[in-house]
Design goal:
- This protein has about 300 residues and is an alpha/beta fold.
- Helices cover about 40% and strands about 20% of the residues.
- The protein has eleven helices and nine strands.
- It has helices at about 5-20, 30-45, 60-70, 85-90, 95-120, 130-135, 155, 170-180, 185, 205-225, 275-290, and strands at about 25, 50-55, 75-80, 120-125, 160, 230-245, 250-260, 270, 295-300.
- The strands form two sheets. The chain has a five-stranded parallel β-sheet, sandwiched between helices. Strands 6, 7, 8 and 9 form a four-stranded mixed β-sheet that branches.
- A hairpin with a 5-residue loop joins strand 6 and strand 7 (about 250-260).
- Helix 1 (about 5-20) crosses helix 8 (about 170-180) and helix 10 (about 205-225) runs antiparallel to helix 11 (about 275-290).
- The two termini are about 35 Å apart.
- The relative contact order is 0.13.
- The protein binds xanthosine-5'-monophosphate (XMP).
- Xanthosine-5'-monophosphate binds near residues 142, 199, 266 and 303.
Length: about 300
């Protein structure tokens, strides 16, 4: 496939759809929304308003990093602080689908407020083929495919949706990013799910529990940086397990699962054969840097029958 041609076609099509209007792009920092944002910017220049919703569920230092990367491309990004709203919506929710739905609802409600304030008529979003496939199969409710699950964005929220990447899988999206001349740090990034660290925090997502999983994710990312993999992260489980204090007393603490997978397109995946010393370093760092953790586990499950994320 000629990705330069694909990018040109999409740029033309966005320009035609948007006309004299304006478009809003919700940048998450992930490859899909980043590529969409650049396509929209190439199509309509300053008629695209780029917002980054800080939902409090992002990786460490993510909002600042994203803003900086896009400043380098000449694309200004407005950060919308919404962590409190998201934590309020997630409060008390432990069921995975309820958490996803709460996230999705909050996302669109925060976002539609930003859209109305911007007076844009169009929303560009990075739905990809895998999202549509998995939603249709009922594997999960993806937050970013409202149309496919029978909720009309036009009716419910008052704007039109443009999805330029919906025929591509992740490797294709990266190729479009490359063809657009984006920095590798952006187009080669690991996928990060829309509901963010909420997919990596089983049970209730409180600011305190999210801070634990955020720190653990950063450690896992740092220690696996040099290995080829599709995705890597940490997950905070719900139960507590026994540990011992230096003084020899029993105490209950958090359980962290480490996930690192090889995959082509996220439809299937296998656990990465990380070297034992790397796994040991990850365990040592997590136990030392996050004192609430008493056990660190490595997840060996392939997809299927498992999934990559935990909710
Ligand atoms: P699963 O867990 O279903 O994940 O094996 C497959 C891929 O999709 C990502 N993922 C999401 N991406 N919104 C997204 O944009 C979501 O709600 C979502 N859930 C999972 C996941 O990280 C993996 O790459």
């Amino acid at each position: 496939m000629d990705y330069k041609h694909f990018a040109r076609k999409q740029i033309e099509s966005i320009r035609k759809s948007v006309g004299d209007g304006s478009v809003i792009s919700a940048l998450s920092g992930g490859v899909d929304s980043a590529v969409c944002t650049v396509l929209a910017h190439r199509a309509v220049g300053s008629h695209v308003k780029v917002i980054f919703i800080d939902d409090g569920l992002m990786r460490q230092d993510e909002p600042q990093w994203v803003k900086q990367q896009f400043a380098g491309l000449g694309i200004p990004v407005t950060i919308v602080q919404a962590a409190k709203t998201f934590f309020k919506a997630l409060k008390g929710k432990i069921d995975p689908e309820k958490k996803r739905k709460a996230f999705r609802h909050t996302f669109y409600s925060v976002f539609s407020k930003a859209v109305r304030a911007s007076k844009a008529q169009f929303l560009i979003q990075g739905t990809i083929a895998a999202d549509i496939l998995e939603t249709k199969k009922g594997v999960k409710t993806q937050h970013n495919v409202l149309d496919q699950i029978g909720v009309s964005a036009e009716k419910g929220y008052g704007f039109h949706v443009i999805e330029p990447l919906k025929t591509l899988y992740k490797p294709g999206v990266r190729q479009v990013g490359r063809a657009l001349g984006m920095p590798k740090a952006l187009y080669a990034r690991m996928p990060f799910p829309g509901p963010g660290l909420a997919t990596r925090c089983l049970g209730e997502c409180t600011p305190k529990r999210i801070a634990v999983v955020r720190r653990a994710c950063r450690i896992v990312e740092e220690e696996t940086e040099r290995f080829k993999k599709f995705q890597t992260f940490a997950v905070l489980l719900t139960d507590q397990a026994t540990g011992v204090t230096k003084g020899g007393r029993r105490r209950f603490g958090d359980l962290i699962a480490v996930r690192c997978v090889d995959s082509e397109n996220a439809v299937t995946a296998t656990a990465t054969r990380l070297p034992w010393p790397t796994l040991m370093t990850i365990q040592k760092r997590i136990s030392k840097e996050i004192p609430s953790v008493t056990k660190v586990l490595y997840d060996l499950s392939p997809k299927p029958p498992s999934t990559i994320e935990y909710i």
